[in-house]
Amino acid sequence: MPRRRGVGEKASLATSTNGVTAESVTTLRRSIRTVSVAQTTNYAEQEDEPVKPKRKVKKSPDGRKRPREDVENAEEAPALTKAKKPAGKKRKPSEEASDFEPLELEADEIPTERPPAVNDDYRPVPFKGRLGFACLNTYLRNCNPPVFCSRTCRLDTILKHDAESGAGAGMAYLKSLGVTNATDLSTLIRWNHKYNIKFLRISSEMFPFASHAVHGYTLEHAAEPLKRAGQLAMQYGHRLTMHPGQFTQLGSPRSEVVENAIRDLQHHCELLDRLQLQGQYDRDAVMIIHMGGVFGDKKATIARFEEVYTTRLSDGIKRRLVLENDDVSWSVEELLPTCQKLSIPLVLDWHHNNIIPGTLREGTYDVKKVYGEAIRKTWTDKGITQKQHYSEPKPGSITGMQRRRHSARVVDLPPCDDTMDLMIEAKDKEQAVFELMRSFKLDGWENIGDVVPHERRDENPVETKTRKKKKEEENEEPVALIPAEEVGMGGSENRVYWPEGLEEYLRPKKKVRAKKEQPEEEDAIENGAATPKPSKKRSKKASVTVVTEDIVTVNGDATESISPPPKRGRKAANSTVKPVKDASPAKRTRKKKTD
């Protein structure tokens, strides 16, 4: 895996005119190397080991199996064979050549590391486009109270509210969650504007179960908070988009899946419409989906998608719908003809293209050279500002399955236009954008300060009953409260950046309770200087109960006549209640048998 750049190296990279020096290009070229493959998880280099033939098993006269005797003469022994290595799959080279030519691989060799994901000299520095992140802001999510747009619940909760408070209570609770989510969207836009982030993907979970077949609903109740968010977005030059989930598949052969997908797209379209964006802001508010599964036949899947798109989708959905290449089945070259035929913009995901490049080679050079202009034209023909997605795999990822997991942050920029709207898809969300801004010295990077570990100076203290009572007793002066619109905004010093892997800095430090001091006597017992005193046990006088047929006697006192309780189980067998015979039983006489 290519070595990740440090902060100093990334800073020097940003200061060059095109973002990459000749030395860095040479380093990237040399990083593409291959070695022999052994049967180990880390593909360590090992020599071939001979494989001994299996001994034949013969049966003895008594029917038991016995091993064949070793061959005495070397000539009689079969020749040793060598273990075969799995053949590496060669990809058909592209017609367009790249300066980063991979080494020729033998049939028994595969790379131990991936070639550089960005194998292009060009970097869009200085960057004049809009960088964005998806759905969640980690800093605001850890505020008190938290700010996020994906509060949800389970269907059982809806039914429980209906059962406890009457019909309609569950729906009222469900809609209240959506209103709170929509209200926090405005806070999120204001926070982004303060730190020069002008691109945001709205969470598809803002209104839980809104597209459900039974519990679905429209968004009239949230019209006002959505309108306020749209006005703020236009005021700050903010682009808002959405990305319905992976279950929204228009090419599925199952009719119920298609019905659910159309209903989900209608909900997303209504949400974007209720933002009441104007002009270019409204045209740029797109919905990105994947083609979905292959279902055993790609041509048939594309045919079903085209039929649903042309015959069943509303004009509002068609106006916003965008396709994206994925990291499982569909490459850019497979989706582009459909996008050109139906006038659907195509989102280029650089990371997905490295995993599913089609007939192209892995990397950014080929896809940009071969399809870059055709992809751009799918956007300009509809008057929509082009957008792209960029992410990186976790360090050390080799296989396709490993590379699908996104890294927490990214260290490079793709060779896109310097005016591109670039969505950074990383685990650390806005912090990944901050990392790029600091590394490449992008606009606003100097305004991002480091957080103070475990301290939040942009929040109001939480008043507890104990603390409030203590203040009243000591007559302390009340602390100046932070205005509601400034809570969670990073304060005057803009302390919102936390180092990678240290999200715990955003939360209060955990309190460690001190152990209670042991008395001297207990310490002496632990050290062996004293012995523990025997515990005192109160002796209980045994109570004997005697039961006869007519009288119960307890410790010599007669009580009323009762019948003995039935005995059950082992405890009953060991009970202190024992039936006894009468003191003077009548003599029994045996009857004589009569013939």
What can be said about this structure in brief?
With 595 residues, the chain is of the alpha/beta class. 32% of the residues lie in helices and 11% in strands.
- Largest beta-sheet details: 8 strands, parallel
Overall mean pLDDT: 79
- From the N-terminal CA to the C-terminal CA, the straight-line distance is 109 Å
> Tally of extended strands?
20
Strand content: 5-15%
Which stretches of 5+ consecutive residues score pLDDT under 50?
Answer: 1-54, 67-86, 88-107, 546-550
Oligomer: single chain
Provide the helix percentage. Answer: 25-40%
Number of helices: 18
Secondary structure category:
alpha/beta
Across the major sheet, the strand order is 9-8-7-14-13-12-11-10
Radius of gyration from CA coordinates: 38 Å
Q: What overall geometry do the principal axes of the alpha carbons give?
A: globular
Describe the structure in your own words.
One of its GO terms (molecular function) is hydrolase activity. InterPro entries: UvdE (IPR004601), Xyl_isomerase-like_sf (IPR036237). This is UV-damage endonuclease. It holds the Pfam family UvdE. Keywords: DNA damage, DNA excision, DNA repair, Endonuclease, Hydrolase, Nuclease. The structure is a single chain. The longest helix has 26 residues, at 169-194. The protein is globular, with a radius of gyration of 38 Å. It has a domain at 454-474 and 484-509. The chain is α/β, with parallel strands linked by helices. The strands form 6 sheets. Strands 9-8-7-14-13-12-11-10 form an 8-stranded parallel sheet. The chain has a 4-stranded mixed sheet with strand order 19-18-17-20, with no helix packed on it. Residues 1-54, 67-86, 88-107 and 546-550 have low confidence and may be disordered. 32% of the residues lie in helices and 11% in strands. α4 (155-165) packs across α5, α5 packs parallel to α6 (223-236) and α11 runs parallel beside α13.
